[in-house]
Amino acid sequence: MKLWKTLLAAAVLAVATATSAFAARTDLVIGIPLEPPHLDPTAGAAAAIREVTYANVFEGLTRIGPNSEVLPDLAESWTISDDGKVYTFKLHTGVKFHDGADFSADDVKFSLDRARAENSLNAQKQLFAAIDKVEVVDPATVKVTLAHPQGSFLYNMGWGDAVIVSPKSADTNKEKPVGTGPFKFDSWAKGSSITLVKAEHYWGAPVFLEKVEFRVVPDAAAAVPALLSGDIQAFPFFDPDSVAQVKDDPRFKVVVGATEGETILSINNKQPPFDKLQVRQAISYALDRKAIIDGASAGLGLPIGSHMSPANKYYVDLTGRYPHDVAKAKELLKEAGLENGFKATLKLPPTSYARLGGEIIASQLRDVGINLEIIPVEWAQWLDQVFTKKDYDLTIVSHTEPNDIDIYSRKDYYFNYDNPTFNKVIADLDVTSDEAKRKELYAQAQTILADDAVVGFLYELPKVGVWDAKLQGLWENAPIPANDLTKVKWSE
Amino acid sequence: MTAYLLKRLAISLATLLLASMVVFAVLEILPGDPARLMLGMNASADQVELLRNQMGLNAPMVWRYLHWVGGLLSLDFGRSYTYSVPVIDLVRERLAVSLPLALIALALSTIIAIPVGLFSASRRGRAGDTISMGAAQLGVAVPNFWFALMLIYVFAVWLRLVPAGGFPGWGAGAWQALKSLLLPAVALALPQAAILARVTRSALIEVLNEDYIRTARAKGLPYRTVLWRHALRNAMIPVLTILGLQFAFLLAGTIIIENVFYLPGLGRLVFQAITQRDLIVVESVVMLLVAAVIAVNLVVDLSYAVVDPRLRSRQ
Asked: Contact A229/B31, CB-based, under 8 Å?
C-alpha cells in the first residue's frame, strides 16, 4: 500500500514537472536597429522611441490598431457633438500609472495642454492644433472642444505623441518612462538593451509576456546569426537584403507587411529646370519602379503613383499614370527645350534604400539624358541642407508618418511646391468628417500630386519582420512606428 | 629624468589644449542641427529654435568653447543632448566594456605575436618562417568584420559556446560578461597580432645581425639564451611603440567589431553621437581619448627607459 502511494506520488510529480517544462515561454528578446535617444514619445521624433513604448508602456485616449484602425484605449467610449466640434471622452476607471499614481481626467487635460502649449517640444505639435480647450467634467469624463471640426481628430489622438502622461513623472519620462500600459519600464543599459516587465496592476486585458528585452543590433549582418543562435527571437524591422538567409528555415517566420512610408524621389520644385512640369513628368516616365524595388528593396514593396500607402483606406491606384517610357520622357524634355539633357545633383541620406535606389535612379535618368551627380550625406546633414535650407535638386527619402499627404500643402516645405487648388483640398479635408466626402477629397489630393508630378513616386517601404515561428501576435504591418506586445505570446 | 618628465608633461598639456580647439572647431563647422534632429521633420522652426535655446546652442561660440573647457578643467564633461545624462556616466558605462575588451585583445595579441616573431626570426628564410609570416600576411589582409562573422557562425551559431553578440553587463556575473567579450577580443587580437609578429620578427632580425650577438654566441652561450636575453630585449623598442598605438586603437577604434557584436563600447558611443550631433558627447569623449593616447605614449616612452638602460643615463 505504501509502495503504491509512493509510486503514485512519483507519477504525479513526474507529470507535473513535464507539464511545467512544456508551459509556454514568457520572455522575449526583440532586436531593434536603432537605439532610442530617450523614452519619452511626447518629446522627440525618433521612431525608435515608439518602437519600444507605444501600447506597451504608454497609452492614449485612443490607439491605432495593426491595420491602421482607431480603437478605444484609455477612453472606453466617446460622443461627438452634432457640429463635430465637441468630443466627450468617457475614461476607464481604476487605472493606475506605474508609479502608483491614479489616472484621471486631470491627467488627460494635463497631457493635451502640455502638448499644445506655446513652449511645447512635442515633435507632432500639429496633431493638437485644432484643440481649442480641454475641460475636466468629472474624474472619468473629459471634454475636448475643437476650434473647427476635424475628421482625423480621433486618429490623431492615437499617435504615440498623444499618449497620456502623469504630471508627477512627465519631466522624467525620458530616462524613466511612467505610463499606464501593460508593461512597465525596468532598466536601460545604454547602447545595449532596454528591458520592460509586466505591470502588476494593469486595467485592461492581461498580457502573456512577463519580460521583454529590446536589444540594439545596429548591423544588419549581425541580425542573422543573432536569430540563428536563438539569442534574439524577433526582428520586427529586418533588413530586406538579409531575408534570403532565413526565409527557407522552418524555425523562422518571414512576414512582409506594409508601412506608411512613401519612398519618393523628392524634387526641388523651384529649382530650374525642375520648375517645369514637363521636366518633372519626364523624370516620372524615366523611372522604372520595378527595377528600383528589385535593387533597393530586394523586390519587396509595392509601387506607388501618389503620396498614399496602398494599405491605406483612402488609397487610389495611380501607378499607371506614368508607365516606364524612355521615348516619352525624351519627348517631354525636348518640349521643355532640354533635348540635350542637363546635369543635376542627387543627395542621398544614409539609409540603404536611398543609397541603393540612388544608383539605380541615376542610371535610369542617364538613359533620358539627365546626368546626376550623387552626393552621399549624413542624416543630420540631410535635415540641415535638404530639409531646412532646401539646398538640393533631387533626393530620396521615405516619408514614414501616417496619412501625411498634407505635407505638400505646407508653406515652406522642402518640396517648394505651392498649388492653391491642392491647398484648398487639404484645407477642406481638415474640416470634413463625413467619410464619403473625405474619401473623395483624398482621391482628389492624390490625383493632383500625380498630375503635377511633384516628386517621383517610387514605392511603399515594406515592413519585413522575421521572428521565431512559435511566436504569435506581432504586427504584420506598421501603420505607425510601434512594436505592440499586448497580444504577443509563445505557442506551445 | 625629472626635467625630462616635466618637459613631457608641458608638451602633453599643450597638445590637449590644441586638440580641444581643433575638436571644437571641426564640430562647429559640421553641418547639422541637433535640435532639428531630435524634433524631426514635422516640428516647426519655432520649436527647433526653442530647443536650441534650451540646449544653449544659441550662445556665442567663444562663450560656449570657454564654458566647455572650463567644465573639463573641473572634470565636468557636460550633459548629453540626446540621452540627457552626464557624459561622464556614459563614458564610465562604455569603458566597462571597452577597457576590458582592449586589455584582453592586447594580451591575446602579445601572447600570440611575440613567440611567433621569435620563432620566425630564429628560422629566417626557412619553411617555418615562410609559413608563419604567410599566416601573418593573411591576418593583416582579412577584413576583420568578415573574420568576426565567421567566428560568430562557428562558435555561437554552430557550437553554441558563446553568445552571438551583446553584452549582459558585469552585473550578470564576471563569467557571463567575459564570455561575451571573448569572440570580439579574438577578432580584434588576430590582425593586431599579425602586425605585431611582423614587427617583432624584423626588429629581431636586425638585432641578430649585431656584433654583440655574434660575440655572445662566440663565447659559447646557448642560442636560446642569446635570443631571449640579448636579442629580444634590444628588439623591444619598436614592439612597445606598436603596442602603445594598438592600445589606443583598441580603446576607441573598434567601431566595426562593436557593431558586428553589438557591444556598447566607446567607439559606438562616439559614432552614434556624431550621427545624432550630440556634440557635447563627441567633444568630451574625444578629449578623454586624446588624454588617454597622450598618457599611453608617455608610459611607452618611460618603458623604453626600462628596457634600455642607456636611455635612462642619457636623459
From this structure: no
